[in-house]
């Protein structure tokens, strides 16, 4: 392993922390009561060049092999910057906001202007992610994929079960991209697995993660869920992954990858994810994170005609959703931050 690159530490107290590496804005550690929740390979490279094997890399603007540039795009191998924080909120939670923009290198690969903003909030037993993509161009539309490539640490992947995938179609990348339908109530892994589940629900629960506990994954504006484990068949294909490490990881990834997001000039796209460890509460919080892309006035008028109780305002020619809950009123500030150049 090379020398570590620069990181930002979010510390909520009670041995609950989150560490983010500036290289790719990759979350490389999330500890709850001093228990690590994420898998990072012992062979991971921290040289500021290669993607970090494990944690939560950001995939943008392309998912998978890319003829124009690095696999899974350039966001995970780009140096990000800190826009805000770490800052303690009145609730005791800790947040930080990272960003990256196009540069000469990215434009040589993918000739578009963009701004990514990545907001992380560390709660007592939760980690919140809000990621936004802004197109500052006045005349160019671009399309992209976006995904949070989450590696969960598990004692034995063969004992894990993933809920919320029953009945979903999936693209099986291990079988020549053939499309199947998932018939199992809970998905288990016992072989090389690389699947893109499409139009998945907003919530999954993964059983038997750290210390046999459960992990709840909640997502918004991420219609796909990728499930991946290289198994013994392909672990040896990765120089930054130990051949014996695959039983201790499971990737359950929230993304928008089976079809691209098309982003018009002057508009933004926002998506969110919440990771919630045990104890899992009965109510869902995903309704507090309802980022919506408003691209034109017609959409706003449609919302008004539906007599929705949310207020819409015009800011920099972008319509922004105002959340009524002041504790979770993130969308307005977040999207405004996207547009600050």
TrEMBL record:
Per the record, a Pfam family? Answer: Aldose_epim
Q: Does the keyword Isomerase apply?
A: yes
Set out the biological process GO terms recorded for this chain's protein. carbohydrate metabolic process
The catalytic residues are: 149, 253
The enzyme's E.C. designation: 5.1.3.15
Per UniProt, the keywords (alphabetical) are: Isomerase
Pathway it belongs to? Answer: Carbohydrate metabolism; galactose metabolism
Q: Which CDD domains match?
A: D-hex-6-P-epi_like
Q: Which GO terms describe its cellular component?
A: cytoplasm
Which GO MF terms are attached to this record?
Answer: aldose 1-epimerase activity; carbohydrate binding; glucose-6-phosphate 1-epimerase activity
What domain of life is recorded for the organism? Eukaryota
InterPro entries membership:
Aldose_1/G6P_1-epimerase, G6P_1-epimerase, Gal_mutarotase_sf_dom, GH-type_carb-bd
Catalytic activity entry: alpha-D-glucose 6-phosphate = beta-D-glucose 6-phosphate; alpha-D-galactose = beta-D-galactose
Family membership:
Belongs to the glucose-6-phosphate 1-epimerase family.
- Summary of the function given for this chain in its UniProt record: Mutarotase that catalyzes the interconversion of beta-D-galactose and alpha-D-galactose during galactose metabolism. Beta-D-galactose is metabolized in the liver into glucose 1-phosphate, the primary metabolic fuel, by the action of four enzymes that constitute the Leloir pathway: GALM, GALK1 (galactokinase), GALT (galactose-1-phosphate uridylyltransferase) and GALE (UDP-galactose-4'-epimerase). Involved in the maintenance of the equilibrium between the beta- and alpha-anomers of galactose, therefore ensuring a sufficient supply of the alpha-anomer for GALK1.
Its protein name is glucose-6-phosphate 1-epimerase
**Where does this protein come from, organism-wise?**
Apolygus lucorum
